[in-house]
Design goal:
two-stranded antiparallel ribbon, 2 strands, 2 domains, globular, 539 residues, mainly alpha
């Protein structure tokens, strides 16, 4: 039975990649190859950033012959990244899946349901862990002195570390489930927890240089504090360095804690999955029957879903927070930033002239991280028929989804542009062109998200993680946006730096791109009114 359940979970997980949502048929080999290559490219780019971080780890530890300590740092980083990414996906998959009631009503043991789901979550966690652990291994093989056992154990430990990621994620998800089952507003709690975890990650990330410097200065005391066979990180580090006994101990420990985790979760699975103690009884209120215009009602529905679905709010709206935080940092550190740029301008003469293009490209990459419109169609799920039967037009439905995306982006963009104006004090024409460019690009991302959401819908999901994090529309918007930003930057480098073309100024260059992107926005708007409306009716 576990095999059947696992097959269902894996099929659901891989369906956005394997199935073409336009035809609801398997993708062709060419399309599957192209999509796989794109995903591998994204994973490689992310892994490269962690490789450079591991270079700093190796410089501090391997120089002192502390190979095991190097792997301790890599393991800590792997666990932190894996748990932060996996914890809420774990909660949704285990306790908030829409097919929980159906599965519980069947003659299935909770341990069977949990085992199947935990195996699929383990595979997902292994992918996230590999993005950190594999670059760490490669760096050690290059800069360290690997033995045969350290190479073999290092590879095997990827799966051991992933087991700890799974256990910690499941236990945190279990705690979240116990707490939210007694709360009236679950979304507020889980959203706050999201921001706390990612806030912790960014604090550690920005303090990494200080942490590594303190580690280098106090390497002896840190080594003594980490040593000991009761410390699992010490066991992982020694095992990765080739210690056979530590490898056996950590493997047995991972198997034991996984078994305990399944036992604990299975005993409270039904209670958490079916509990609704915090639900608020709906009292009749005549104000609820007040008339609202269709546009206002649709926008209220979209807003309620966005702010009431933590994984949607956090994954699709994180860019809004990042842009506002970046704006505050730019204003607070404006003097230091300007002084640094003046210093660079001496050695890189084209930097000052092309500052508007550089700021525009940075803004594009930030805007591309905000994917609110992309999963909005897929999130309708099996209630889409309700929306389609209402006496409203497709244009009104599309406008509500676009309006939410544009509104949230506008808040962040205003903050960012205000910070640029205060910190860099650009000339008025430059500021006008830069603002127009980023506004048009923001509209482009909003329309692109809705278009890709219509052409690549994922409606047969059991939890919101699938359309929000795994849908093709979200992937196209983010990676496509970064690709366009790279094109704008690359073409500028060719024209102005390599070929030294002077008759097109950077401001004119941005203005030309504003017109090009604006024409694409007009085309997508027309498409939504014709072919897009037809596709929506056929969903």
């Amino acid at each position: 039975m576990i095999k059947i359940l696992l097959k269902k979970e894996l099929k659901e997980f891989l369906s956005p990649i394997v199935i073409n949502r336009k035809t609801n048929k398997p993708r062709s080999r060419a399309a599957l190859f192209a999509l796989t290559a794109l995903l591998l490219l994204a994973a490689a780019a992310t892994g490269a950033s962690f490789y450079f971080l591991c270079m700093f780890f190796s410089e501090i530890t391997l120089a002192f012959g502390l190979d095991w300590l190097y792997f301790v740092l890599v393991a800590v980083l792997s666990l932190m990244i894996g748990v932060i990414i996996n914890v809420f996906a774990t909660f949704n998959a285990l306790f908030s899946a829409k097919d929980n009631d159906l599965l519980i009503s069947m003659p299935l043991k909770p341990s069977q349901i949990l085992s199947a789901r935990m195996i699929s979550l383990y595979l997902l966690g292994t992918l996230f862990t590999a993005i950190v652990w594999v670059p760490g291994l490669i760096r050690y093989w290059i800069a360290g002195s690997p033995s045969f056992l350290s190479v073999v154990f290092g590879i095997l430990l990827l799966f051991v570390v992933s087991a700890f990621v799974l256990v910690i994620s499941c236990l945190l998800g279990w705690v979240v489930g116990l707490i939210t089952s007694r709360l009236r507003n679950k979304a507020v709690f889980t959203t706050i927890l999201y921001f706390l975890l990612f806030g912790l990650y960014y604090v550690v990330y920005f303090k990494m240089s200080d942490i590594l410097r303190n580690l280098a200065e106090n390497i002896d005391s840190f080594e003594r504090s980490m040593s000991g066979y009761l410390n699992p990180f010490y066991l992982i580090g020694k095992a990765a360095a080739g210690d056979v006994l530590c490898m056996i101990i950590i493997f047995c420990l991972a198997a034991a804690v996984t078994a305990v985790c399944i036992f604990v979760l299975s005993r409270s699975f039904i209670k958490i999955s079916t509990s609704n103690k915090g639900a608020k009884k709906k009292a009749y209120d005549k104000e609820d029957n007040s008339f609202k215009k269709p546009e206002s009602a649709l926008f209220a529905k979209e807003s309620k879903r966005f702010f009431g679905t933590p994984i949607y709010l956090f994954n699709s709206g994180l860019g809004v927070i990042l842009m506002i935080v970046l704006a505050v940092i730019v204003i607070v550190k404006s003097n230091d930033i300007v002084a640094f740029l003046h210093m660079l301008d001496v050695t890189v003469p084209w930097l000052g002239d092309g500052m508007s293009v550089i700021l525009g490209v940075i803004g594009m990459m930030l805007i591309s991280t905000i994917a609110i419109s992309a999963p909005s169609v897929s999130l309708e799920g099996n209630t889409l028929w309700i929306l389609k039967t209402l006496p409203i037009s497709e244009k009104q439905i599309f406008s509500a989804k676009l309006k939410l995306h544009i509104m949230m982006n506008t808040i962040a963009l205003i903050a960012l542009l205000a910070a640029v104006a205060i910190a860099f004090r650009p000339e008025l024409p430059e500021m006008i062109v830069l603002s127009a460019f980023l506004i048009i690009y923001m509209l482009f991302e909003a329309y692109l998200g809705l278009v890709t959401g219509l052409t690549h819908p994922v409606l047969d999901w059991s939890n919101e993680t699938v359309p929000v994090k795994q849908s093709m529309g979200v992937l196209i918007c983010m990676l496509g946006g970064w690709g366009i930003a790279a094109l704008v930057a690359g073409l500028y480098a060719v024209l102005f730096i390599s070929l030294e073309i002077n008759f097109i100024t950077p401001i004119l260059y941005l203005a030309i791109w504003t017109v090009i992107i604006g024409l694409l926005v007009l085309y997508m708007e027309k498409w939504l009114g014709t072919k897009g409306a037809k596709k929506f009716r056929e969903l």
